[in-house]
Amino acid sequence: MGDRQEFRPERLKNLLLYVAERSKDDPYFGATKLNKILYYVDFRAYRDLGYSITGAEYQKLPEGPAPRELLKTRRQLLNEGRIKLENHPVFNYMQQRIVLVGSADDAIATFTPAEAAIIEDVLSMVRGKSGTEVSEMSHREAGWKLASFYETIPYDTAWIPPKDTELDEESLAIARDALSESAPDRR
Hints:
The protein has a two-stranded antiparallel ribbon with strand order 1-2. Strands 3-4 form a two-stranded antiparallel sheet. It has helices at 9-22, 31-49, 70-79, 105-108, 113-126, 131-138, 142-146, 169-180, and strands at residues 58-61, 64-67, 83-90, 93-100. The protein is α+β, with helices and mostly antiparallel strands. The protein has one domain (9-180). It starts with 8 loop residues before the first helix and ends in a 7-residue tail after the last helix. A hairpin with a 2-residue loop joins strand 3 (83-90) and strand 4.
């Protein structure tokens, strides 16, 4: 498929640090919201720039898309002492959030102006929204609708506009067939 991306672990680390820095004052910034921010950044970059910023592989989970490499990357950042995890009460549950130890300036500097603009735009889009609200937004994305649970969401689905209505089985089959055919390389 034309949407094959090369995973770049350092880029995912830097994106995690960037997002954690910019979300430190967001009371709703927890694991669910982080996963969706990463998804929206990578898929928007793929659509607008022709490549994913991190090359991470996203899977369909019940609460929405999440990068398969996130837990390993988070563990590396914890071991490096660059982040810590904190639990914060939000309504009737405990939210786990990534908190920076130090600055993310060096990580932020690794992004091009176009990449930084996409990251900032996605952060603005989700600002003030809870993890549940952002999760519900992601459920309107064609990639989330087309994939089965725990299956990889193809980057080429970034080209399909999100819909608020359910896709019928015939539309899903047509879209799956189109995505499974050889697509032009957009890297």
